Every structure is written in C-alpha cells, then in structure tokens.
Amino acid sequence: MASKVKRIGVLTSGGDAPGMNAAVRAVVRTCMYEGIECVGIKRGWNGLINADFTLMTGKDVAHIINRGGTVIYTARSDEFRTKEGRAKAYSTCELLGLDSIIAIGGDGTFAGCLAFSSEYPISVVGIPGTIDNDIGCSQYSIGFDTAANTAVEAIDKVRDTMQSHERCSVIEVMGHRSGNLAQYVGIATGANAVLVPETPWDFDKDVAEKLREARLAGRTHFMVIVAEGAKQKVDGTADNEIVGNGGAATQVASMIKERLGMDPRVTVLGHTQRGGSPTARDRVNASSMAYYAVELIKNGANNRVVRMWDGKVCDIDMAEGLKMKAKLSTEEQSVLKAMTGSYLSKEPTAEEMSEEELKEKIRSEIEAELRVQLRSEIEAQVRAEIAEEKK
Length: 391
Ligand code: F6P
What we know:
Blueprint: E1 7-12, H1 20-34, E2 37-41, H2 45-49, E3 53-56, H3 83-96, E4 100-105, H4 107-119, E5 123-128, H5 144-165, E6 168-173, H6 180-189, E7 193-195, H7 203-216, E8 222-227, H8 247-260, E9 265-268, H9 280-298, E10 304-309, E11 312-317, H10 318-323, H11 330-340, H12 355-390
Parallel strand pairs: 1-2, 1-4, 4-5, 5-10, 6-8, 6-9, 7-8
Antiparallel strand pairs: 2-3, 10-11
Helix pairs in contact: 1-9, 5-6, 6-11
The chain binds 6-O-phosphono-beta-D-fructofuranose.
6-O-phosphono-beta-D-fructofuranose binds near residues 15, 131, 174, 175 and 228.
C-alpha cells in the first residue's frame, strides 16, 4: 500500500557534526525509495521561519556521504525559541504541505521539536547529531566517532614533539557540558589525566598526584586532556566560570607550571574536531538512523527520537527521551581510572592481606631492619680493627 505521507522536511540544527550529510542523504534516498517528497530546510529552524528551503532529490545528495559539515547548513535559532518564531515556521509547513519534519541535532534541537509539535499539528522526529555524544536517550550521536578519531590523530602528533622535548602537554578537546569525548580520547591516547565537566577537578588529586606518579615511574613526557567545560573544584563547588576557547586548558597548564615546576604546552583542538570526512562508523550509523526515521514517519509515528541503544537503532518518545540525563559511560570511567592510576604498583594494605601474607611482610621488614643493624655492628667492628692496626 502506498504511504499516506506525501512530503517530509529535513533540517540540521545546532553545532554541525561529521555524518550529518550522510544522514541528510539517507533521508532523501529513503524518501525517494518510499515515494515521499523531501524538502531540505536550510539553516536549521531559521529556514522554516524564513521559508528558506529546497526540494531535494538524488542528485542533490550525490557525493556528499563522504563530506563533513552539512550541505543544508545549520544554525542555532533564537527566534524559534519564541512563539512568534514558531508561528512563522508553521506557516511555512502549511505552505509546503509538510507532513513531518526530521530534525538532526542535539537536545536543544529536540526541545524545539517538542515545543513546535505541542503547538501545531506537525509530526517531528529527531536524530541525534552532535560530536559531544551527550544525548541522554541515545548511546551514540552522529559525529562522535569522527571527532574522536580527529582528536586522537592530532594528539598522537603532539605526543611526538612532547616526547622529544620531554614535556608536559595539556590538550583541550570540545565538550562544553559533557566529558564523553575527553574520556574516550583520553583512553585512546593513554593520557595521564583527564578532566571532565561532570566532576569538578581538584588539582592535587586529579592532576599533580597522577603526574608525580608517572614521573616516579620513569615517564618523561606527560599528557593531560581537558574538556573545554571542565571546571576547578572551588570550596567543594564548581562555581568558577571557565568555558571554551582554551580557558580550561590554560588554567590547568599554569597550575602545572606554578606548582610542579614543569613547562607545559597547551593545544586547543577546537573546531578541527567538528570537521572532516566522517568515519565509516558515522556514515553507517547516520544512514541507518535516517532510514529508520523515514520508516517511522511512514508508519505514522510522531514525536520520536531515533536512538542507538545496546548496539541497535530504535526509538523513544521525545518527551521521555529529553528527560534522560546524559551520563559518562561508567565502563569507560573504570577503565580510565585504572589506566591513569597505575603507574606505580600499589602495595596492598594490611586489611587487604591474608594472615599469612601479613606475617611474611612483617618477617621481611624485621629481617631488613636486623640486616641494617648487623651491618652497622660489623662496620663498627671493622673500623675499630683498622684503627687498632694503624696505631
Ligand atoms: O557541537 C557541540 C559543541 O562542539 C560543544 O562541545 C561546544 O561547546 C560548542 O559546540 C561550540 O560551538 P560553536 O563554536 O559553534 O558555538
């Protein structure tokens, strides 16, 4: 039976992410496959407000699967946050006869979707697209894999020069509110310390101690990864406002210099992480999620977020999804804790030892003390004999 859905709009909103083009392409191609028309809305929600759109067919999405950025442009729309803005946007939907909108972006984009569909009879479906991977209801968002690989490649290059100069490097990665990228990249590059926005950092515990241990274990160059939104713990709170543009990394580096006497170098990876050709993983995930989104709409769904959960593409009610708070992967947290806290082999505490182990430890300590004592007794005796001979 032919689909009742006639026309779908697709837009990209918020920060761009590599793989967004692959998603737009898959929306267009699935629409063509299902006999639905697809309209590309330009510059995010602003395109709906300003009636800035283009009908898209196969030729419009040819040769874009491998391109970073988004061919339909993106924006953060303040006007769409207002009732007046959404009213204008709906008049474009009416003009175009849109049955539904697929919005590719982050949770801000989805919040916009929800406000829109609660006021007007328009169906919306969201697809997670942000390098931050900070959408609570999805374990994956388009662009994360490419951004992580871009960061790893850059950090490996920085490592070469740090190693040669035996220096400490402080590298800032993106992540205003989320440390997912920093944590993942930190594991992949073998960083000595990783600071994330979710947990305010304490210089002694989270940086100095780790660098000291690494130094004692013989390391001669050091790597600290800082998410741009990581904040210092101040009197138990996270109240110092350091956000973006190298502020966080610079602060950490100057403390390393002052307190540890090292001469660190700061590298801010910035927007390089948002560009570039998407990885195979991002292309495949983007294509699968976009295909799924069109199928959902074809089957009459509304207000859904397409998501990746336990390795599968599935969907969730948008309001429910927005309530889910983004969290750092606990598995990765444990891995990172072990990787950054094991430079020196740790002695087990007395409580952790069996009775036998404890006795053995005490015996060897006594033995060592006695040897020292015996040595000094023999030394005294030999000295006395030599002195006697000299007389
Ligand atoms: O795309 C998300 C993000 O990369 C955040 O990590 C960062 O804080 C923000 O975008 C910066 O975006 P822009 O420079 O476009 O304002």
